[in-house]
Design brief:
It is a single chain. The chain has 138 residues and is α+β, with helices and mostly antiparallel strands. It is built from six helices and four strands, in the order H-H-H-H-H-E-E-E-E-H. A four-stranded antiparallel β-sheet has the order 1-2-3-4. Strand 1 and strand 2 form a beta hairpin. The N terminus is likely disordered.
Length: 138
Amino acid sequence: MRSIIIIFITCLILSSGCTGNEDYQKPDDPLEAGREFIRFALDGDMRKAKVFILSDGANERLFENIEKKYAAESQQEKDSYKDASIIINKSQSLNDSTTIINYSNSFKRENSEIKLVKINGEWWVDFKYTFTGDTGVK
């Protein structure tokens, strides 16, 4: 059943293009939003991944740096990222609007974390957390 849901969601994403299409809605679950963001980034589809980035100057600069780093990778490296599976090590809900996801991928196997925050009913990636570790939660 879960695989059918994942296939359905993937089909919806591919058909909508995630390009600001008013019909596209990000997942209402932080874990699924995080997985979509990670998958788009691994696939090198930075335009779709950027849909999830919380809009603030620091987040946008950090994401642009990652885009440039990815663009400079060899095609073999990019293909390895695309073929990689996402490995969720831990998902921790800090409160009803903040979740930390610890993950790696089957290519690099390096643990990383992203913070998702719920603002106005949507889950956003607060990319600064990946580099600072500051949850911003008191």
